[in-house]
Design a protein that fits this description.
Helices cover 24% and strands 28% of the residues. It is of the alpha+beta class. The chain folds into three domains: 128 residues, Gcn5-related N-acetyltransferase (GNAT) (Aminopeptidase); 151 residues, Aminopeptidase; 106 residues, SCP2 sterol-binding domain (Nonspecific Lipid-transfer Protein, Chain A). The longest helix is centred in the first third of the chain and has 15 residues.
Length: 408
Amino acid sequence: MRSGDLDEWIRSLVVPFLAQVDEESLRHWRAHLEVERAWSVLDEGRSVGTCCVLTRDVSLPGLADEPCPTSAMAAISAVGVHATHRRQGLLRRMMGAMLADAMDRGEPIAGLFASEASIYGRFGFGWATSSVRLTLPRRTTRITNRAADLDLKLCDPEEAGQHLPKLFARLRLGRPGQVDRNEPYWSDMFVPRTHPSRGSQRFFAACDEGYVSYRSLPGSLSEPTVLRVDDLFGATPEIEAGLWQFVLGVDLVDSIVANRPVDEPFRWRLEDPRSLAVTALNDSLWIRILDVPAALTSRRYRSEGSLVFEVEPAPTWVNADGEPEPDPAAGRWVLEAGRTGSSCRRALASEQSELRLGVADLGSALLGGQDLISRSAAGRVQQLVPGSLLRADTLFETRPLPFSSTGF
């Protein structure tokens, strides 16, 4: 796409999402878009479909008490086809162009946040991270196991802009699944919101080892006041508990909502654990493995072992021209995993496959958040040698569970 076509690209993008073009959306995409990694589908000179790739990296499972390793990731975004041009193979061709571009750049995985969960499995993307939407009544919540109070400072946007990006860059390496944030992302966070429907301005409270970002959601004097936590990160669970305690002390608030990791531990500090209600379980980051050896050797394994596994191709894999090609992740592979390093290679004819799974299921397993045993029970993973399923599940398991707080 040429840089001069950017505003037309944005106007085309909003159509499938039933959104509107306004100055905020124009500013957002002008700052975020990498023009050389954006595509439009044209029909008689008019854009009828859009997609783009953003250059990102993602944290992978690591070892206890060590920062998580990271991997380059092609972050797929803004994928949409106008209703007048559906079922003409345009999505297939756009996906082929984006994944071919990622492979040319040496990115071993691609990731996305799915607008609809039924769309991307056929391209080999697997649900890799989850989040839970938590609701907590502020006025009646009692904490039985308090953390130490933190020396927090309320930051204005300028102060937050100097401190929070560096803090997040360090803290995100404490959990797999976290996508890096670039300067435009942070600029969006610190710019005052112009849409009342998106809530109040953001407030920021930080210390040296953690921070919380929050805002009130829209309401009226006759409606309960809801405080939404956008970010809550600490270097340790104790610091995160201190941040929760701070949020619970914000006045004029009836309830608190937050999207948090599935293994959020704050529940077990409460007098009534039921008061921390899970109101939704959501899929977050979906992963598509493009280079199996690079992806599997970039992460760490907390146990040692080997596995010979067979990856079945995605139902849909095409090149940039929309022509079918062999799936680069398909085939038989040997993983030798250890705490100090690992290797992955094509299996020899003499090496028997122990496990069979689809490329989407391998993508789901990469970050350790989707267990293979459950997928086997659902008929998505086939054990070919007794004992191999438990061994594979143990190899890929990780703690803490992966969590993706940064959309794109």
